[in-house]
Amino acid sequence: MHANVGDHLMVEGHTVGEGRREGEVMEVRGDDGGPPYVVRWADGHEGLVYPGPDAHVVPTHG
């Protein structure tokens, strides 16, 4: 997985009724854009994230 500051991290829900979580990558702490990432979630919470297989990065262009 590769991300840049400003990209969006999407984490799919695991159970029925659990929605997708979306957050903005605020800091990349891994080498060459790799995890972990500091992410600000839509609810304003920030945290250090090691994304699992249910996550993907949506690049921000421009």
From TrEMBL:
The region called Disordered is annotated at 1-34
- Gene3D superfamilies xref list: Domain of unknown function DUF1918
Q: Where is the composition biased (Basic and acidic residues)?
A: 9-32
Q: Where is the DUF1918 domain?
A: 1-57
Q: What is this protein called?
A: DUF1918 domain-containing protein
Organism for this UniProt entry: Nocardioides panacihumi
